[in-house]
Design a protein that fits this description.
heterodimer; A: about 300 residues; alpha/beta; Rossmann fold; Alpha-Beta Plaits; six-stranded mixed beta sheet; 14 strands; about 35% helix; about 30% strand; B: about 260 residues; mainly alpha; globular
Amino acid sequence: MSGAAIETDRLSKLYPGGHGIAELTMEVPTGEVFGFLGPNGAGKTTTIRALLDLVHPTSGSARLLGLDSRRDSVAIRRLVGNLPGDFGFGRETTGRAALGLLARLRDAGTDRAEELAHRFRADLDRPLGELSRGNRQKIGLILAAFHRPDLLILDEPTGGLDPMMQEEFLALVAEERERGATVFLSSHELDEVERICDRVGIVRDARLVAVERVPDLLGRARRKVSVRFTDPAGLDELERIDGVSDVARDDGAVSFRFAGDLDPVVKSLAAHHVTDLEISRPTLEEVFLGYYGDAGEGR
Amino acid sequence: MRSPLASLVEFHLRERRRSPLAWGLPLGLMSAFIVAIYPSVQGALTEVVEKYPEGLKQAFGIGELSNVEQYLHGEMLSLIVPLAVGYLAARAVASDLSGAAESGRLEVVLSAPVRRSLVCLGAFLAAAVEIAAVLLLTLVLSLLGSVAAGSGLGVGHALAGFAAVWPLALVGAGLAVVVCGLSLKTSVVTGVVAGSLVAMYVLDLIGKLDEGLDALRYASIFKYYGNAIETGIDPVAFVGLSAFAVILAIVGMALFERRDLSL
């Protein structure tokens, strides 16, 4: 087996409607937590489905854990855990019934599942249709991870989870990495990605536009800064600081966007009497807009 | 340890455990009612039926109605039970394939190390068991109706009549696997199967009504279905229809292996 848990070579899946993925080439080393980011419809779920042989690529190839995604798909699925983006298993099915089926299909025990259910406070005995989205998601996570897979593929894993369970999820991912498993997750949640991912791939309009380490991605992201002064005069030097853009003044308040080293900005602001300061973290969408522009061009 | 196939079939049967009751009870009660009223309507029926045109009687499988078996065939087994159970077979298959795709279950099941064709085979076999359970319940209730009213329904005749429905309904299951190989929308799957069954019934009817169009009947599985409650099961037709259903299921599996599993 090579050192890569996932390797794709110009993997494409084209749909008549235009969505899909095009020429996706990437490598996720074994043991890495890799975030796969992008807006809705960018091609994240299609990529995951192509990796799992649920959809057949139009061209290109993929290898998971050293095995061909198409030829060896059954063998791959023995080693992989998957949480689909919109997890469901039928409204009347209980989590325990779903777990029972998957445990038999995988020839795996359910001890770990019980442990995870306790940890996530998941109710395995109620029909899934009676559970909230977050509680259903917990069942999905348990079904994906209970057999201790070598590769965990998670599509929007924390959707619907409350903050405490999100923390529990992050701890679980950290433990999986510690165990040597690879985690490939798609997400909209930049906070989540920042905390657990080693690297991220950004997909936009069906194409992988960047693969970066998380600190690099965030370091270049433009933050939105709003400052209120007692005297807003004499702020021209702010516009000259490298990384500052979109400066707007409004009755004693100044707002601007900023990326890069924060120190010169702080020093510039410190020369004035600041009454309020707010720096907001960019959303994933803003990171996109900040780094790739509306046309989605690479840096 | 159970095999993956046995696990899939068992899961299906557990999930659809109410189906035999939901389908077998109304069909069985209706059949029991038909059987139970036979002694009281026999005379009047004979008079009415004697006045029917011969072609019409032949087309709808209505004999002289001189016994309860003929009456049960004409009222239930010639059309209602085969169409209902054939449709149920399609629904049963769809619940494991297109319905499972719609609910998200299929993607989770296929994240486990099982071939798609095995999932299709499990759906087909489970449907076969489910329709057998429905037919058995319908048979039992019909016999109870006969005992209660003293209609004299022969156990062997009734068994043959309901058993003959099984391979016909199984064709519905096989056809459903084929349609699932082409579409993962349950409404399409059940619609195509129900439409096909009705169309084949009509073809058979037209062929019976007009001798010049008799060849049309070869395109209908109802030609081979016959009237087992009176004449007994035709083993060739029984095995032939079952084999046809299996062939359809195999074609469906091949289509399902090749298709994308996205709605």
